[in-house]
Amino acid sequence: MAAQVPAEELKKLSIKEGANGNSKAAATSTAANGNSIEHESEDDDEDDHGTSAAAETGDKKKKKRKPRKKKKKSGASSNATAQSDPPRVLMSQLFPNANYPEGEIVEYADENRYRTTSEEKRHLDNLNNDFLTDYHHAAEVHRQVRQWAQKTIKPGQTLTDIAEGIENSVRALVGHDGLTEGDALIAGMGFPTGLSLNHCAAHYTPNAGNKMVLQQNDVMKVDFGVHVNGRIIDSAFTMTFEDKYDPLLAAVRAATNAGVKEAGIDARLGEIGGVIQEVMESYEVELGGTTYPVKPIRNLNGHTIKPFSIHGDKSVPIVKTNDQTKMEEGDVFAIETFGSTGNGYVRDDMETSHYAKKSDAPNVPLRLSSAKSLFSVINKNFGTLPFCRRYLDRIGQDKYLLGLNNLVSSGLVEGYPPLVDKKGSYTAQFEHTILLRPTVKEVISRGDDY
């Protein structure tokens, strides 16, 4: 989920001039497993007439009762050893000893090389075992769900069906459907599924009644989060169905990988931004006979991730800046980059769908009873995890818009409107979550796909 740079911060950027002279700045539930409750067929009626007839004829043989037939279970088998399609097999069933796969392990270099073999650092890593188990659990859920999504998403599907397909799969794999109070806080969606099309770069998910359909010519950013005990995996990719967009996707994928490579303990954030910018600006894409330079979207950033909070206190720019802040041991970062054929700058537009309770929300009196009751619902079901209007609909809330808008205007809840570049342009995104462990850097969300 993208972090946006405040407008005033853009003025402080020390930025390289671009080609056009412009600045670049997750308790198991039956529903979640996809298994239906087994029902026996009705008992066969006693054949009273047959029994009477047998007695009258002196036939001493008893009539055999037909065996009861059981309905077959639907969904994933309780002893499955491979993932189903769609994903419905609990991750804890596939990895019964909680030995979830690690991500990409990268040894530290130069002055941090000692960490790889340091007994002290290895001991610190071992102390974080529960922390790592939760992250590995969430990361494997993300990998399996997104690989299914990449295989099944096709033009002609509605955005609502795509989003709900991803979200239902995540909830099934962690075993928490989020329908009972507090269940979504144990494990589930780290934030709503973003399905931003074309010039819209981030923060778009369909609200109720949305009938938008994915088209053959669309460029769709798929950005979703998975959490287990508040440990959030934030990872995104871009889907297209026309080869002409390949250079755009290649530019952003390469830029993200460059940022991931540069990230590490003591790395300076502004310098990482410079590397990302240089890589992305080395690409161009031809669309409709016109060649466009691929520009980094300078007011979108990567960011640290905190427990139950998708945006921490450090930002990773995707253009060169003078920010000398260092990455530190124990930091969890979402390294995400956005490329555009437009202005390389986004603004708020369209109907808001994403919201989150502010972690530093002020203690203000609420006069609207609808706002008070909704705030209680948000606290009990989402805490500071981002949510969307579809999630409120799903747990039975209705007629909540007035109260929700009041919570936003009171400063208790933050609204995240969709972020768009100029109309007619195309934007792409790739993102990974990295852990700066004491002994190694782990690209926790890395998979065979990207």
Provide an overview of this structure:
- With 450 residues, the protein is an alpha+beta fold.
- Helices cover 28% and strands 21% of the residues.
- The protein is built from 12 helices and 19 strands.
- Strands 1, 2, 9, 10, 11, 12, 18 and 19 form an 8-stranded antiparallel beta sheet that branches. Strands 3-5-6 form a 3-stranded antiparallel beta sheet. It has a 3-stranded antiparallel beta sheet with strand order 4-17-13, with no helix packed on it.
- A hairpin with a 2-residue loop joins strand 5 (219-228) and strand 6.
- The radius of gyration is 26 Å and the shape is globular.
- 46% of the residues are buried.
Task: Give short descriptive properties of this protein.
450 residues, alpha+beta, Creatine Amidinohydrolase, Arc Repressor Mutant, subunit A, 2 domains, eight-stranded antiparallel sheet, three-stranded antiparallel sheet, 12 helices, 19 strands, 28% helix, 21% strand
